[in-house]
Amino acid sequence: MSLISTLIGTLLFAIIAPAVGCLLAGLDRIVSARMQGRVGPPLLQPYYDVRKLFEKERVAVNSVERVYVAAALLFALLAGGIFFSGGNFLLCVFVITLSSLFFIMAAYSTRSPYAEVGAARETLQVMCYEPMVLLMAVAFFQATGSFDVAAVLGMPHPIVCSIGLVFLGVLFILTIKLRKSPFDLALSHHAHQELVRGVTTEMSGPTLGMVEIMHWCENVLFMGWIALFFVWGSPVSALVAIIAVVIVYFLEVWIDNNFARVKWQFMFKSAWIVALVAGGVNIALLAFL
To answer: For the whole prediction, is pTM greater than 0.85?
Structure first.
C-alpha cells in the first residue's frame, strides 16, 4: 500500500508541482522587478520561456547529457511524491540528493570548462547544505518518533515548537537550495551576474527546459519542507503552514535582491557552523531533556 501511495503521489506531484512551481517562478520575477523599481514580466513568463525551449531543435554536446538531466528530473518528481504522500522523509532527502548528483553528472559530461566549474560549485553547494538537511531529518525523528511525514498529523502542536533551532538552520541553507543570492555560485537566474551560465552553460533546447521544470519541482518540494514545521493534528494548521510558506518565500526573494554573491569559502564555513550550532544543539536538547 505504501508503494502504491508513493506512485500515486509521484504522479500527482508530476502534474501539480510544475504548475505551482511555474507560478512561484513568475511571482518571484514580478516581486523582484518591483523591488528594483521595474514593472516586470507577466506571471506566466516562465511558462512561455520553457515552452519556447521545448520548441527548439535538440542539440547537445554529448547525448548522455540529456539522459542525466532526465534522470535528475525523474528523481526530483519521486522525492516530491514520497514527501507529499506522507512517506519516509529520510528517503525523500536521499532521493532529492540523488537528483542533484545526476544534475552534476550532466554538467561534467559536456567536458566544457565553464560547465565543469559550475558542476564543481554545485558539488560544493551540496556539501554545504546536506549536513543541515540530514540533521533536520534526525530532529524530525526525535520530535515525532518516526521518519514518516504523515507523523506530524498526530502531533498536538507544530514541530517547530520542538525543533525551532533546526528550522532556523533550514532557513539559512534554503537560500542555497533555492539558488538565491548570495549563495547562487553554481547557477544564477540573474543575467547580470553571469557571463556564462555556470552548470547549464552547454545545455539548450528541451534539455534546458527539463532543467527549469526540475527547479520548479524542487522549489515546491522545499516549500513543502517549510510547511512541515507548521503542520499538526488540526485543520487550522493548513492555513498556518500556507502563511508560513508565503512569508519564507518572500523573505528568500528579498534576500536574493539585497545581498551580493559571496565567496565559496564563506558559504561553506557558514553553512557548516549553522548546521553544527542550530542542528547539533537542538538535537542534543531533544536527546537529553
So the answer is: yes
Per-residue pLDDT reduced to its tens digit, 95-154? 999 999 999 999 898 888 888 888 888 999 999 999 999 999 999 999 999 999 999 998
Distance, CA of 206 to CA of 53 (rounded, Å) = 5
| Extents of the domains making up the chain | 2-288
pLDDT 10s digits, 38-63: 888 999 999 999 999 999 888 777 78
Give mean pLDDT, residues 249-254.
94
